[in-house]
Amino acid sequence: MQLSLIDLWHEMGGFARGIVYTLAIMSIWSLSITLKKWWDLRKAQAETRKFAPEFSQFLEEDNLTEAVTLSEKYKKSHVARVLGGALAEIKPLIQDGTVSVGDINSAERSLEREMLMTLTDLKRGLAILATVGATAPFVGLLGTTMGIVNSFTGMAASGSGGLSAISAGVAEALITTAFGLLVAIPAVWAYNYFQTKIDNLTAEMTYTSKEMIDYMIKNVSGEFGRSRFTREFNTTASSGSAPISQ
Q1: Rounded CA separation 175/188 (Å)
Q2: pLDDT digit string (tens) for 112-161?
Q3: How far apart (Å, rounded) are the C-alpha atoms in residues 158 and 150?
Q4: DSSP alpha helix (H) spans, 75-162
Q5: Is the separation of the CB atoms in 224 and 97 below 8 Å?
Q6: How do residues 173-209 score in pLDDT, each as one tens digit?
Q7: Measured by CB atoms within 10 angstroms of the end CB, which terminus of the chain is less buried, N or C?
Q8: Residue 34 has pLDDT above 90, yes or no
Q9: d(Cα 222, Cα 85) in Å, to the nearest integer?
Q10: How far apart are alpha carbons 214 and 205 in whole angstroms?
Q11: How crowded is the C-beta side of 119, counted as CA atoms within 13 Å?
């Protein structure tokens, strides 16, 4: 006797069908998150490739206004989100030549806050993929267990023995385990793929943040911030290096 999947579906009880429906919902949910996450990361990388050279050029020209405007234009870029907020905060001070060490520390904290918020957005949905990948096989196994229990219960009620009496029921039960694995495997693959991609994007944000801090430090000792920084340094130096009386 051969049974197709359609025949097994018609033979399934209410509990087994409920398991299949649950797994189908989990599959659709994880698939929708996978597609959206793939598109968002692809868009972020594409915008970052356009943003980075233009932003660097504006910084080399000390055109901070255009640099801030550019970061607001590329809202999907993870690097633009991190650098734009910090630069907008420190731009008036750089242009006025009043940047201090405390201002740079404040800008560094602003960069860290933007990185945390950006990482939170990038990781949104990964917990669902991890949950689906971890629990879908057990949901399918639950359906299998109950299906086998029902098969043996039916065999005991009918009084017939042998594998032929329960083979159809066991096949019906094992379908839910197979379906659970079919749902879990792509979810685990997607989770690991996105986790690696986000780690790479985190490295990019960290690297560019350090470059931004270096740029601000150079401006403190450069033409923009020379006056105030020099005054602070000279005041400290003069108070701590009084001439020694003989």
Answers
A1: 20
A2: 888 888 898 899 999 999 999 999 999 988 888 877 776 777 666 666 65
A3: 12
A4: 78-96, 101-123, 126-158
A5: yes
A6: 778 888 899 999 999 999 999 999 999 999 988 888 8
A7: C
A8: yes
A9: 22
A10: 14
A11: 17
Which tokens go with 221? Answer: 């000792």
Structure tokens at 38: 């793939």
- Please give the single-letter amino acid code of residue 179: F
Three-state SS for 193-206 is HHHHHHHHHHHHHH
Residue 14, token pair as written in the block: 């209410």
Model confidence, pTM: 0.73
The pair of structure tokens assigned to 71 is 């970061």
Length of the chain in residues, anyone? 246
Distances in whole angstroms, Cα of residue 143 to Cα of each of 14, 39, 147, 225, 237: 10, 34, 6, 69, 77
Number of neighbours of residue 95 by Cβ within 10 angstroms: 14
Query: What is the number of other CB atoms lying within 10 angstroms of the CB of residue 228?
Result: 17
Residue boundaries of the structural domains of the chain: 5-229
Report the distance separating Cα 80 and Cα 200, nearest Å: 16
Hey, what's the torsion of the CAs at 151, 152, 158, 163, to 10 degrees?
80
| Amino acid sitting at position 173 | A
CB 76 within 8 A of CB 43: yes
- Comparing CA positions, the residue from 26, 76, 29, 74 lying closest to residue 53 is 74
Does residue 132 contact residue 29 with C-beta atoms inside 8 Å? yes
